[in-house]
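Hi support team,

I submitted a single chain yesterday and got back a structure, but I'm not sure I'm reading the token output correctly. Could someone confirm the output below corresponds to the sequence I sent? I've pasted both exactly as they appear in my results page.

Thanks,
R.
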Amino acid sequence: MAAALSYEDLRKHARHLENEIDLKLVAFSKLGAGIKSPPAHSSSDAVPLLSGEDTFEAMALEIEELLNKLTQVNERMAEQPVSGAAMLHTLQRHRDILTDLSRDFRKTTSQHEVRREREDLLRGSGDSFRGDGVNNRRDIYLKENQHLHSSDRLVNEQIAIAMETREHLTNQRQTFKRLQTRFNDLSNRYPVINSLIQRINLKKRRDSIILGLVVSACTILVLLYIFR
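Hi R., thanks for writing in. Yes, this is the structure output for that exact sequence:
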């Protein structure tokens, strides 16, 4: 593209590239969606899928090259002196179109890649693409295996924590039982201590009763005062 191209020339070139890319994206999308697994009974079943893959890859490279050219044209237009709001609107419009075209290209490429991986995974081991399919399946199985190992390790850690907690609680329970046994032994061995403990408990019970009676009496007096 010559350096002397005017803004109008650049704009026309951008429109031409946009139309060309748009048409190729339609065919590109149909090609990506139309690639199917070859029939298993065919002896030359690798040929249709291979040619389809080659065509898809070639068209992807072609569209990517056109997108790069359109990007350069947009940059050249942005370098031109701005003549008014209409020019700014036109530049923004071309940038938006480039963004939409690039997004559609990436979307079609990504969908095709996902579809191809799914077909490789579902295809039998006797397929002519056994090497790629086995590699893809092996990677998926390894990831699943690692995920299972991680989950198993987390479960084992939780079980170990629960067992440790249970053992700790069991030890505490045994400790309390031993303390209670010793305390009962002391009470039985020394009747004075047992008698003193009983007196203390009796005094606490009596104090609680007295306190309850006082509170009840005060409550009754307050109610009588209020509703008098």
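A quick pointer for reading it: The first helix runs from residue 7 to 34. Let us know if anything else looks off.

Best,
Support desk
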